[in-house]
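This section describes the prediction task in plain terms. A model, or a person checking by hand, is given the sequence of a single protein chain and must write out its three-dimensional structure as a string of tokens. No templates, partner chains or ligands are provided. The sample shown here is typical of the held-out split.
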Amino acid sequence: MKKNLFLLSGILVLSFSSQAQELKEDYMTWPESSKLGQYVSSWVPGEDLFEDENFYVSRVKPKERFRNAATQIDETLTEANDRKLVFWVPVGNASNGNTNARPNGKFDSEAFSTWSYVTHYGDWTAPHGWVPGGFADVAHKNGVGVSGVASVPWGGISSEWSSGFSTLVGIEAEKVAKFLHYHGVDGLGYNSEFSTGSSFILSGLHALHETVHKYLTEKGNPVVENFWYDGTNDNGQITFDSGLGNHNNDTFGDGEHIRTSLFLNYNWHGVLGGLTQSTVDTYATGRSSLDLYAGFNMQGGDPSTWRTLKDYNLSIGLWGAHDYNMLWADRANNGSTDVAKQTYYQHLIEQFFTNGNRNPIDKIEVYNRGNHHPDDKWFGMSAFMTARSSLKWDLSEEPFISYFNLGNGRFLNWMGERQNDNEWYNIGVQDYLPTWRWWFASDFMGKTADKVVENGLEAKFTYDDAYVGGSCLRLFGSVDNEYLHLFKTEFALSAGDVITVRYKLVGGQADVNLALSAKGDEQTILRESGFKVLTVADEADDEVWVEKTFKVSGALAMLAGKEIAMIALHFENAKNLDLYLGEFSITRGAMPTPTAPEIKIAKVLASHYKGVDGKVIFNMDNDKLPGEPVYNLDVNASMFKLYAQQKGGESQFMGITTSWAGMYFSVPTDLQGEQEIRFGVAAVSVDMKSDSEIAWSDYMSMGEYTVTDDIQINKTTIKPGESFEISYVDPRHAAADWKLLNSTGVVVKDASNTTVFTVSEGIEEIGGYDLQVICDGETTTYGYYVQITSEAVGALPEIQSLTIGGEAVAEDEVKIDVDEALTLGYTGRKANGASSRGIEINEGWVGGRMSDLSIGDGQTFSVSAWVRFTSIPEGSCFFSVENRASSAWPVNNWGWMWSDLSSTGKLNSYTFRTATYNGAPELKYTFPNAVVTPNAWNHVVLTFEYNDQSQFRSKFYLNGVLQESTWVLDGASGTTETWANVNYSITTSDWFCFAGGRGSEPIFNNGIIDDLLVWNGAMTPEQVQNVKNGLDANSLPQEVMAYWDFETDADEDHYFAAKGSVAGAKACSFKTEALGSEGAGRQVAQNPLYISGCPFVPGSTFKVETRPTWTAKRGVLSESTGIDLEGSTKLTYSKPGDYTVTLTLENTLGADTKSYPVFKVGDVDGVEESMAGELRTYTVEGVLFVEFEEDGDYQVGVYNASGVLVAQKEAAVAAGQHMSLSLGAKGVYVVKVMKEGKVVRTVKVLNR
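The expected answer:
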């Protein structure tokens, strides 16, 4: 699918680094890994070890998983042969402060969710003996153990770790076990590839591990497990790949003295005789071969042994890599936006753990493969193990509730209502998610490939809506008959239990029933006719969450006493279905309301233009002894709501957490209001139906305000004479002087002593203009920040007028009858055009083979291109000449030359080195002032030049200007014009390329490349200018070796043929495919995504075409047509009501959206009235009246068009009485009416 790469009209923020407020290093203590012994020694049960300790305490007791072969896809798997799996990898990125799995203000954080195929998650970058509490909470509810890792460097043990281990084993072992038990850590993990002569350390660790395992097991922990990388042996030596024997059986332990499970090195296949059950029986009586984990390096580079594993009863150990896991690293391979990355991450883990088809019954045969990046051919971990479930407990103690929330979001919803629009991440609040991803079948409990429905329904999580949290489950497509198996359970139902399905029908239609079966008769659906969720007659409404409840009584009384084994959905007659699933629950009675928390610490951590960051730490009253774990169930809580309130303002619901501590990021504040704030916490009942009172901190000063220097421009495409505005994003920024300079350095527009630079009359001359901002004596230059382009290449769409029936819109509302046809129209500016064609980077590389150009050692050449980066993650690549096909690691992580950009577009450096890892020195250039302006076209030239003494230098031109640089080489240094005494070899397998990622880094930028050129020799400043101004492809200078203007299509292999002196030179958009060796890969040409190219060079291949899109909820549109200048559609409504219609004009340069007046459909005279079953609503002079037909305790909430609560009232009302609420501003409002805690109606009203 072609992705449109455009920027919406409106404000463009230059700085990409300020889009989300992240957890910063000084916000929260991060324990030191080597100091576990010191922490335990200092720990006094009942007292805080340090301020932030509650962030590292799990509040969910580990649940035990159960077995039921009848609900397994492979029924032959038993406790004796069903493999375990340890996921020994980092969470998120360890660089830039190692946020790990701690609460964060960044949506694009790692929300791992395929727990059913993991038995232990060893958080590789969490400290030894510690795990973030929220991460432990979600693992524990899924029956998964967690631990941190002692990452001891290879070789002789360092003094740091020797001292740390000596302290640890010198403490009473049971105190260590109690420490882990209290904090919710389910074992100890070791990257043990160190050598030591200390028997004190080794014997002490053996005893400690035995004590930890025994103590936690006796305390009822079903997931306890210690892990030892099988490198350091019992004698303190390093012996990999020797199986189980006399050298490591003390570390492993036997059945009466269980100590560790062994993570085997990646060459385990060479000692298979030492890994059998008979070998285990010889050296470790009572242990299982499943306690030996066959190691796989997810980076690649290990032997391909998956087929061998099928024949041996070993568990699976996954590692890779040091700073981030490989699945997280690949998340940007299908789009650069945060939503695209998060969506693709879930897709990747579904493929990796289930299989490439993302359906465990659509099996893929296991084959040997040297890399572990999942794709459509990947066999998945489901080929080796069954999906496990923990969904078995007494429903009278804890209901089963899932809102399909992943634990992160771009907004926060609560019970279907928007609370705030801040990004957030707290994996601890992740819900129970479907056991299989995704078990679709034509038959209920269909377990074979012949039950796979071709072109059936699709399932994925969506971040566009949520009932609770920031996501929900989306089911979509067309199918005649199909089942989706959701949950493997063992819940015993009782009379009166309530089963709830909550959904939102966004579009299409289907008959959907709930399909349940009972333990002992798993193949038989229980009374499906009594569980109708949706019918084809139901109308789509993307604004209303529909609740369907089924009570175990009456016709469904036969369910009482049944143990529900399978929960599925049955779809029939689905046509273009788009269904959001927001809740599935089974509840029993009412759960008690918890008491209010007791706040211990509340702190403001930062104050900035987006708001306030802070934290709150609290306790819950309980009767547990000091040092005993206290779980949320013990205090009648499921989670906690986090509130903030600026003094004099309204309280704001900012977040949710399961920990007894919470983080706040970017709490909105009024900069003109009182500069004090307080934080509050409320406990939520286990059934999610009631809250405690809010416990508030004292008001605190918002602290010192941090000003940001980011600037913004209000238009992304500017035409001659068109007005535009540049400003600081921070309203508190000091005033500055502003100057716009043309290519010769002449100031064409300026303003003094202001924070907003308005150019009302525009600029007539086409071209790029540098922006200078002078504030407090410092000058900051933004190259080519303002770009004026011709009308011929297209423009941003602009809706100039809206019409109804050919007449300009002049009213706030329009009354029409049911089925009355209206013609809606518009007029717009000229926006269509034609331009040069570029190709999208598409989270890959753009370039070609050096061998095609016959550029060898000591040859001078230059490379140029027009580039426009639309997404620049920190540290992403700018340009490189590298060899990704090498089989030798880490050569393939280097190259002949590489460079990187900061998120602001600053070219930090570029580096040269020879293709060897034997200590060769690097030549490194740094550029103090080179900024490749994001979201703007930049012309770049890189020259690589040798002189007759075989000395080397490189220059970088940006928008025709030579950039100042300095370099260092093995103690020598120089500046822009000086030469370095070095001659590095270019290999035949090197590629020259713009963008891309370095090695296996998960950092890819996006953007557009146009007019790519390779030049024979070092371009002079005059030649740089000539190339920048555009070349005639039919009359190229003789120095041009290869030139790609992308005006002609790529060939069937996706390569572009070059014009120029070198025949056969080709370029392409490509990505890398991993090979068998560690880190190695090959370049694979991709089908190019064409996009509007640089407007400053000749070309007319890419057509900029503007199209209208009308959105009319519950309306019928027909005969829609339109271009940039005008268009129309016909609209009818079949039912009375108040409706809104929006028009969006869009092309590849941007979009404009406007709304028509409210359409009032029906024959309503006088007051506005809406009938809704138990009530009616009407408005009189800005006051809303809600009249009730039944007695009851009602709560009425009124929400504006943005979903913000603007009015609310509660009262006990008798039949026939009414409530009145003042609405305020004109417009459409949504009225939500709740009766005794349940939503009974949601209606729209118009305040005229």
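For orientation: The mean pLDDT is 91.
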